[in-house]
Amino acid sequence: MVLSSENDPVKADDTKEIEEVRKSDGKQKDPKEERNNEMTEEDRKLQEDLELIVQRLVESNTDLYVPTLEMLKSIIRSSTTSMTSVPKPLKFLRPHYSKLKDLQTSMPDGKWKDMLADIISVLAMCADEKGDCLNFRLEGMNEPIENWGHEYVRHLAMEIGAEWRSGTSTRKDSMEKLITEIVIYNLKHNAEVEACDLLLEIERLDILIEHVKIDEHERACLYLLSSAPLSPDPDNTNMIKTAMQIYSKFGKELEALRCAVMLNDPALINKLFNSKDDLVWKQMAVLLGRHQIFIEDAELPDGINDLNNNMHISRFFRSLARELDIMEPKTPEGIYKTHLEQSRPFGGSVNQDNSRMNIAASFVNGFVNCGFGVDKILDDTDTANRFFFKNREVGIMTSVASLGLIHRWDIEYGLGQCDRFLYSTDDFVRAGTLLAIGIICAGVQDPCDPASALLMDHINNERHCMRIGSIFGLGLAYANSKRDTVTKEEDGGVIFELKKVLNDNRPSANAEIKGMTALSLGLILVGTGDSDAANEMLTLLMERSDVELSDHNWAFVGLGIALIFLGTQQRSEVLVESLRSLPEPFGSMVSTLVDVCAYAGTGNVLKIQNLLYICSEHYEQEDRRDKKKGKEAPKEKDKEDKIDLSSQQGVAVLGIGLIAMGEEIGSQMATRMFANLMRYGEPVIRRAVPLALSLLSISNPQLNVLETLSKYSHDSDAETARNAIFAMGLVGAGTNNARLVAMLRQLASYHHKDSTSLMLVRISQGLTHLGKGTMTLNPFHSDRQILSSASVAALFVTCFSFLDNNTSVLNNQQNYLIYSLSLAVQPRMLITLIEDTNGNKDSDTPGQLKQINIPVRVGQAVDVVAQAGKPKTITGFQTHTTPVLLAFGERAELATDEYIALTPFLEGLVILKKNPNAV
């Protein structure tokens, strides 16, 4: 046993404690005393040392200030802590916090005053007084911020953000240096997310561009681009622009171009479409071609124009089909498999409308053999003619137009196949051929411009069907085309000629002609915000009377205006207000239509709330209530107002799906909303819900969505059931989903007596087998970060036309509107290419590139935003050899180090180059 002298402080303390315990024997114990008794000897020694330091600072001897404060700084910095506890020095100094603040204020000026301010700034993390951490930091010595640790940096960032938000700060300039220090510290310590959040809060993303390093830029840009869809305007565009500038700073030209595409800025895209590396330039051309942005520049290097013009899609798609051994054409009967449908022993004879079944067969034949260039019905001219003339009038036109789907993207061979029907004696055959030409040329830019040459001659044809075929064909052929040859305002331009038709006052230019012309203009100018064209359509609507506007064709004029402002957000506000001045029922519907299109794919919560408010009105119930009370029936005008306002609700429901699409959380919330709307909504709302639900999961047949739509397809309201059947086709488009195929087969038995519903079941079966399971209608590409305007427009036009399907799509007069889906059709392939070093210039492959088969890993995409380290980007992968098919939500990565991909997202055509560091 070691004995201590009387002067030993530890022994003296122990003796005092024992005496105190004896004195307090039988009394209630103080919790503070208990805590002190539980302290270890080391903690007690630290507490005493800190109290001694505070005592020395209280004394007036300034010579002791600096060494004492240095000692205090050393103790605080050397303290270690876990994530869940406060450092011991800060805990022991907390009772002295106010004393140290007063002391710092009364101290004479000198180095020690600034040193104490730094220490108080750190202590403020544990104090209740807000703002002290930042206030005393600004008064201090401005020592390197990293000396005090990550938690201190976080506190400073929070207080800077709070003061900046208040809008009353007068010291923003003095804080700027501190903000820069915090950003540099966060970037250096893998906290790019916190750096971005701080700069977003104070709206100074330019600081990030200046200080980010090459090792940190990828995580920072990924966070900015992933957060942009969740941010309001203009923060979202600022984030994308910042990411674009960071990519440009480090020579990532392709990634910078992707950001410009996301911004939908043609001038910026033209500026960035340039690269010193010829292969990178070609990969840029592929990206722009996928988004249907065509660059008109005669001086572009050889091969880049072909890749940008999408001349290669047909060739590579058929190469994929041959690799998968699916070139053998299929017939509609082979898709229906009627022998597997449930037998109907007591059903009696089935009264099927053969004309509707023939139209369904035309669509199915086109969808299933889409892009393959060969089928078993239309290949032979005699067989084709017999097939066409099973229909009547517009049905013939619809059947012939299916040629366009079969020869999709193949201008060279497809137009030759169409040519044999251009000289038919039947006007409807020729009209269908014109529409087929438009479908073939959609999204492909040929230097010869065959669509314009063949279709423009018939735009003023005396025959109504010929005009419709040429006008709608032009709309499809030049959808999203911003080329000078299309948009030029002079004699001969496509838009110029369409505007002439729009302003044609002759009796032959009826409501359907005007509606299709406006719709075609909307498709061509989609997302441009062209106020001139929109104002011409607005003027056209203002000249119409209330009775005229009741014709559903005038709604397509409003849809044309909406497509022009697709995704333009606030730029549409003036026109939305102008449309409200139209006769009330029609004006409300069209203004809502333009508003929802302007925010398509943005996930804007406020807009969705407004649309839900529109859906909450119950017009028809008011009518019933009036009748129960014995009141007089409302005037005819009031009655019309209520009916038309409820039709505005259908547009609002579609708008919820359109705005929420592409954003996972928003989609889930919207799906729950639709369940309530289906339960409590008006008939018009219930009819729109299946279509809106399909927009949320295009070509993504999730089990819960399929089950919901299957339930709606048995609804007592025929129109609701029909829309649900068609929505099932959109949800499963191009997936060959076995469960959906079985559901549709069951529906064919259930609706066997209803020819209209059965026709839609057949069309949905064709959509499910779109391209024999190799294609998609999904409008998102480039790892689901970029939304294709033309694809969204195609889907929305189709869904909108089904809102009032009995008067448009299903009345055998406008079923050709379903062909607008052809704009959204894309192969979901991954094909890898390398440069053809043999210099075979006679090769058919564009840009002197040749196809190469290499191993790739394909698996479910994993969200790696803000995750630490280098996490895996896919999970549950399988290794395949290219070419391969990518399903919804799948991502691919190279399984070999021999090559480097020139794009970070392996989709469509991917150009590779040899890896110089490969072993």
> Termini distance?
69 Å
Structural class of the helix and strand makeup?
Answer: mainly alpha
Q: What is the tally of beta strands?
A: 12
Computed over alpha carbons, the radius of gyration is 35 Å
Please outline the major beta sheet.
Answer: 5 strands, mixed
Strand content: 5-15%
Oligomer: single chain
**Poorly predicted regions:** 1-29, 345-351, 621-644
The average pLDDT score comes to 82
Name the overall outline: elongated
Please work out how many helical segments DSSP would assign.
Answer: 45
Fraction of residues in H or I helices: 55-70%
Describe this structure as you would to a colleague.
The protein is mainly alpha-helical and 919 residues long. Among the domains are: 483-598; 828-919. The protein is 57% helix and 5% strand. It contains 45 helices and twelve strands. Strands 5, 6, 9, 11 and 12 form a five-stranded mixed sheet that branches. Strands 8-7-10 form a three-stranded antiparallel sheet, with no helix packed on it. It has a two-stranded antiparallel ribbon with strand order 1-4. The longest helix has 25 residues, at 636-660. The protein is elongated and about 110 Å long. Residues 50-341 form the RPN1 N-terminal domain. Residues 865-917 form the 26S proteasome non-ATPase regulatory subunit RPN1 C-terminal domain.
